[in-house]
């Protein structure tokens, strides 16, 4: 999924700020600036995040505002001088927002050849692809290592033998660049889905241009999927984050887990990369999935015959190589990548 975009405040030059530092709406934003989207408001600790949900969404909107291309206020019919963080958080969970965002990126690609934004930055995408490759190889070899980074490197031809059997689905694929990276790592059965038609058009155009025409792209909404097959590996890089920002986020997250549990084959993997949830929070969400489903179903008067079943996933591993920092006595990281095994 592409980096989040937020409407800007009117640019103005302050006495302390030289004129050449002012950003004008529509200026290009560097990859380094985009990577700020995965910011430090997700704090790891034994008890999960130090922020409550309302504060998390407000901080998310503020952090993401510095990490994306800006769009005019008039696009959102806002008459406020300053954007409302809660309103922006809700907006980022709507399909209409992403349809508009990818229409812009597709037009930009056709005019300038730009690939668009790399959500979480290129460095994180490279880590996710290489780490997932090592994890899948270890599973194919019959190992369940706690530290995937300690795996000994295998010859390329051996890796290809292991990875060719892994069918891969990228949900909320956006511009599809993660699938290109996974193809470089040796995966060959690759499918990307997104509910935005322009996102799929962009992803297919980029794949064709870059020599990855074997990757399949389909328009599909993970919350109401029409896919009739299961995959050994399902990737999510930022999609659950966006779903959680929907006005009905708690209900949408329940729908997400119900749908994804049907897409991942038994014994398969779900790899989630998030800047809105820590590793501990994702593990806690999965372990308490049954209770959360019951609570949300009762609140919305939804009858779910499978509400009391055991969680379909269990924690397997997580990336340990992301840079960390200390904040408020807790160790934090800007992004979390966690692998869950389908029961």
What does this structure look like?
By secondary structure, this protein is an alpha/beta fold. 38% of the residues lie in helices and 16% in strands. It is built from 12 helices and 9 strands. Strands 3-2-1-4-5-9-6 form a 7-stranded mixed β-sheet, with helices on both faces. Helix 5 (122-140) packs across helix 7. The longest helix has 19 residues, at 122-140. The relative contact order is 0.14.
Task: Kindly summarize this structure in a few lines.
Helix content is 38%, strand content 16%. By secondary structure, the chain is α/β, with parallel strands linked by helices.
Give structural attributes.
343 residues; alpha/beta; seven-stranded mixed beta sheet; two-stranded antiparallel ribbon; 16% strand; disordered N terminus
């Amino acid at each position: 999924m592409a980096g989040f975009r937020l409407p800007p405040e009117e640019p103005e030059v302050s006495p302390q700020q030289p004129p050449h530092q002012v950003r004008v709406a529509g200026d290009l934003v560097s990859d380094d600036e985009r990577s700020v989207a995965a910011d430090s408001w997700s704090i790891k600790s034994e008890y999960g995040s130090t922020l409550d949900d309302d504060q998390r969404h407000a901080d998310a909107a503020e952090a993401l505002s510095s990490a994306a291309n800006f769009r005019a206020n008039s696009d959102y019919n806002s008459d406020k001088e300053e954007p409302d963080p809660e309103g922006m958080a809700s907006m980022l969970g709507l399909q209409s927002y992403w349809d508009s965002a990818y229409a812009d990126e597709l037009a930009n690609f056709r005019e300038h050849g730009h690939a668009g934004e790399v959500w979480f930055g290129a460095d994180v995408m490279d880590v996710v692809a290489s780490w997932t490759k090592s994890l899948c190889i270890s599973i194919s070899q019959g190992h369940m290592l706690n530290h995937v980074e300690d795996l000994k490197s295998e010859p390329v031809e051996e890796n290809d033998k292991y990875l060719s059997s892994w069918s891969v689905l990228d949900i909320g694929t956006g511009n599809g660049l993660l699938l290109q990276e996974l193809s470089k790592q040796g995966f060959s059965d690759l499918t990307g889905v997104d509910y935005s038609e322009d996102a799929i058009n962009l992803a297919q155009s980029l794949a064709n241009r870059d020599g990855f025409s074997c990757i399949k792209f389909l328009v599909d909404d993970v919350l109401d999927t029409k896919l009739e097959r299961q995959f050994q590996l399902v990737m999510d890089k930022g999609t659950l984050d966006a779903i959680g920002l929907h006005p009905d986020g708690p209900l949408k997250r329940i729908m997400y887990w119900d749908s994804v549990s049907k897409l991942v084959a038994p014994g398969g993997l779900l790899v989630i990369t998030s800047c809105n949830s820590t590793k501990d929070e994702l593990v806690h969400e999965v372990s308490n999935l049954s209770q959360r489903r019951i609570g949300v179903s009762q609140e919305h008067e939804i009858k779910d015959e499978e509400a009391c079943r055991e969680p379909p996933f269990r924690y397997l591993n997580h990336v340990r190589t992301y840079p960390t920092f200390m904040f408020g006595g807790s160790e934090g990281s800007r992004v979390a990548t966690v692998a869950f095994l389908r029961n």
